[in-house]
Amino acid sequence: MRLELRDITKRFGTLVANNRISLTVEPGEIHALLGENGAGKSTLMNVLYGLYRADEGEILLNDQVQHFTGPGDAIAAGIGMVHQHFMLIPVFTVAENVMLGNEATGFAGSLDLDAARKRVEEISQQFGFHVNPDSVIETLPVGVQQRVEIIKALSRDAEVLVFDEPTAVLTPQETDELMGTMRQLKEAGKAIVFITHKLREVRAVADKITVIRLGKVVGEASPTASNQELAAMMVGRPVELTVRKGPPKLGEEGLVVQDLRVIDALGHVHVDDLSFSIKRGEVLAVAGVQGNGQTELTEALLGLQTHVTGSIKLDGHELVGRSVRKILDAGVGFIPEDRQEDGLVGNMSIAENLMLNRSFGEPFVKNGNLQLGKLDEFAQQKLKEYDVRAPGISTHADNLSGGNQQKVVVARELSRDLRLLVAAQPTRGVDVGSIEFIHKQIIATRDSGVPVIVVSTELDEVVALADRIMVLYRGRIVGIVPPDTPRDVLGLMMTGERPEGAVA
């Protein structure tokens, strides 16, 4: 099925999110839509999917103009969408999620769950997904949940598939698997729109690239274009794609962790006898495949885990046993890996989110009264400094794009007087221009003498930021190595193998 968008314009009040955008996607083609956070990519696809109605312009499928009043019309016309944040019911099975909204019925109107199971099995077999239709969604890894989203779209005979930032929550291995799936779908004749800001992924799978900036198409590019060329088109200026940092100016040990052990309520050990330290002015980057104790480690540092033994000392003061509030007040900044779940309150404004961990005293609260003038001045400053794309500081956080949400979290944490920065997936779902900025802020924090621990599944990010790399496997330290360690060695360490010379 051939998709054509002609002069699509979408406004939100005075904000023009899409300004006369046109593009064409042929059957058996992967068309990448590349742009910064807030450029208008997701808005354009929400227009295509019937979630928004365009103020101007037309949507054509096989040269026939479409009039969608909602997603149901788009689905019926053969359009499927795989959202950045999955639209799945966690406590339902795969089959139940696939049939949701398209329920087949049997005798006396009963749900025909067997038909849904069969459909899941057929699609899984066709594309090699290996998804059990009876598995409960919340028990599945993120990469498998995404396959369920794809199965759900294909079960409704989608011929045009929209992938909206599909790798934002995936590990490198899961990303590679998704790239393979997209190639299979292309070979099956599907027309694919791939929304992303990750240059490596675009160059790996795209047949065509359309770049949009500030709601307008600024050009088309070939997948053979360099990362620097694509980044410059996205941002409108040359972008530094490498992290520039001098040698660390190491001070005394700031963070000392000894014999740390984290156990969940069921008795499962997630962090197993970890001992390490970070000096002032140093970045220790934690590498490993997602699910090997990184999340539990960062949560233990913040007091978010309840079953913790061992010692965590910051500037010689014990943190284990302290409340989260006292740990934050001790100068610990925290960029959580899930900004929506742990970093922001969606129905609160940008300004309110910027003061979340400083809402008990000056400068924002005095004698129990909120100092609105101080808060507004601070929020306006951070909006500009961190280039948060939003109509204003009163905009609710859940109305921001994912990358702009991340910038709000980073702005809040890095604007405090820190003694330790814990950054988990600091640039997940963030565009190249923002990645450049956030990386510079992390290095500036390190250069100011603050110990920094960075947890990332992006190996490029780990190597770029680290003064030392600590590799975790099944909750234990495989080794602590320098950042110039060869990639293949780091990859082996992520599987649990310890090379010679690795400090444990």
TrEMBL record:
GO CC terms in record: plasma membrane
Protein name in the entry: ABC transporter ATP-binding protein
Keyword Aminoacyl-tRNA synthetase belongs to the record: no
Domain ABC transporter positions: 3-239, 255-499
Record membrane topology: Peripheral membrane protein
Pfam families: ABC_tran (PF00005)
Chief site of localization: membrane
SMART domains assigned to the protein according to its UniProt record, in alphabetical order: AAA (SM00382)
Annotated compartments: Cell membrane
Key words of the record: ATP-binding, Cell membrane, Membrane, Nucleotide-binding, Repeat, Translocase, Transport
Keyword Repeat among UniProt keywords: yes
An MF annotation (GO) of this entry: ATP binding
Lineage top rank: taxon: Bacteria
